[in-house]
Amino acid sequence: EELPYGKSSIINNDCVSCFREMDVNKMKELEEADDDRQNDEDEDIVNEQCEDLYQISGKCETLLPESAIDSPNENACSYIQGVSISVSESGIVVGRRSAS
Predict the structure, then answer these.
(1) Which residues lie below 8 Å from residue 49, measured CB to CB, with a gap of 6+?
(2) Cβ(48)–Cβ(31) under 8 Å?
């Protein structure tokens, strides 16, 4: 007898968009704004839930280019390396990846 979920995952792998829809007037305002202001406004395009999750998440920004971030957060690099796993195309865990 087969175990339930032996060939498929119980976890839904559907992604949820972090993009927040903007109204037409706001979009026109951004298009007309100068670059500095537009960069400030870009942060508002991410929905609040995703922004909050990102802020509290563990990060390993070691390989980001210097131009992408002022001071990379590397606080979770060891943890992330320790929990890396391999997952099949169907979403089933098939083994632990070796640390590189």
Answers:
(1) 18
(2) no
